[in-house]
Every structure is written in C-alpha cells, then in structure tokens.
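#struct-queue
[09:14] JT: dropping the first one here, sequence first, then the structure tokens:
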Amino acid sequence: MDTTMTIQDLGAIGEIIGAVAVIASVIYLAVQIHHGLRGYQSVITQETTNHFSRLQLDIARDPVLSDLMYRAYSGADLGVFEMRRLGFLLSSYMIAYENLYAQHCTGMLAKGSYEARRRSMASMLAPPAGWHWWQSNGIYSHPADFIAEVSVAIEDYRASKLDAEAIAAK
C-alpha cells in the first residue's frame, strides 16, 4: 500500500482547510457584528438617558420652568406665554420620543426601555395643557406612524390611570 500523497490528495486537503477557514471567518464576522450592534444599542440607550436627564435637570434648576411644569400637570390655567414656553419643552421631549420610537421599531432599543419612556410620554400629554399642545401643534410636527403611536400610548395611559384610581377607591 502506497502512503504517499498525490497532488490531488493535497488539493483536497487544501479545499477542506479553506472551507473550514471560510466557515470560521463567517462565524467570527457574525460575532463581531453582534457585538457592534450591542455597542450601538448601548450608545443609543446612553444618549437617550443623557437627553432626558439634561431636560429634567434644566427644568429642576429653573424655578420658573419647575413651576410651569407643576402647574401644567396639575391642571392650572396657563397664559399664552406660559403655553408657548410649555410648547417648547414638550416639543423638545417629543422629538426625543420620536427618535426613541424609531429606534424601538428598528430593534435598536430594548422593549422595556421604550415602554417606560412611552408611559412617561403619555403622562406628559394626557393632562389638559399637554393634550392642548399636542392637538394644536404636536400632531403637525411628526410622522403619521408616530402620531398614531402617541394616540395609542395616551389611551393606554388614561385607561391604566382609571384602573389605578378604581383600585385605590376600593
């Protein structure tokens, strides 16, 4: 029995090694893409957190804005200037919420993170001042799919608030 390898045998071994190397490269690239995607998701989450934290901190540092937000969400009547100022704040929030919604739709933002912010968004727009701003300005400044999402979020928020009030009344 001849144990020497022919060129054909060496070529077959080379093809097997090449195929294994291609498979290993594809697996390596898939892992790298997955890690890159997770890194991108982390950046989105961090930027979102930073944006909302800055907005909240700006409001907390400014007694006029803090008072405005308190009065707006307690149902107090606001003057024209106050409504305009509130509109600027809400617009800033809603641009961020629209971005969150887009990131959520593409799978780049975790469902839990989106759901928490979705409730927060609805709580800002459900009170009379927020609802008035949304109906008179907000719905004209965003894409139709986001407007529909906001409508559903507000309905969900109001329903959950009614449920909570009913439970508390028992």
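[09:21] JT: and here's the second one, same format:
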Amino acid sequence: MNLVCEVTKEEVEILLQKIKKNITTNGYLVLSNRGKNLEFCKNYAINSKILKNIINKLTVEDFSLVLSNEHPGYEKEKLYVFAPKLKLIDLKGQRQDMQVYLKINYIEVKRTAIVVSFHEALHNLEYMFI
C-alpha cells in the first residue's frame, strides 16, 4: 500500500461525519471477510453492533494515514487508516488495552463503508493530528 496524499483535519472530520451518518441511517457497513478480521472479532466477541459503536466513537485524533487501494480496478479509491486505542475483553474475560488497526474504504455514491482491516495493530501507528 502506498501513501496517497496528505489530508486536512477538516477533510477527515467531514469523512467521519459521512461515515457515521451512513452507518446510523440506511447506509451499509461491510466487514471484509479476511481471516485476521474474523479471528479478531471472534476473540473479542465483536459483532456488527459493537463495530458500529467503535466507528461512531472515532475522532480525528484517531486518524493515522491515507493509502491507495492497490486492487486492480479500484486504484482511484482511498483507504483511510484509523488507530483507536480500545479496551476490549477477550473470550477468557481478560481485559486488553490495545491500539487497533482500522482501515476503511468509504464509497460515497453507494453509501457504503467497507472495513477492509480490523485487528490489533501489528506495530505502533502514528497519529496525523496529535
């Protein structure tokens, strides 16, 4: 994945408003059916309602970077990476504090937010607006 461009704080605020409005009205939220995403959700009992709640709590300060979509035919799409710090409880009842890697592809014309990646961050992510 390549860094696409710099974005302003205002652009990220507008994006978050659109995504949040979208998932609380008639828009769609799709979790990509990737093994790492599914395993993470299973290990922390995260369902669509909890995922929507996590996204609705995202702030500009959680924003990390913008990547280009490298899948053929989707090169013009941008992938927005957020790194919220969450307190989650695993299946053993153990509380875990962690930074999460949350990559979203927002397709405005389809009113669809696709969560491409949702799992524990593999390395410490930097925040663009802190």
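[09:30] RK: nice, looked through the second one.
[09:31] RK: The beta strands are 28-31, 63-68, 78-82, 85-89, 95-107, 112-120.
[09:31] JT: good to know. The chain is about 25% helix and 30% strand.
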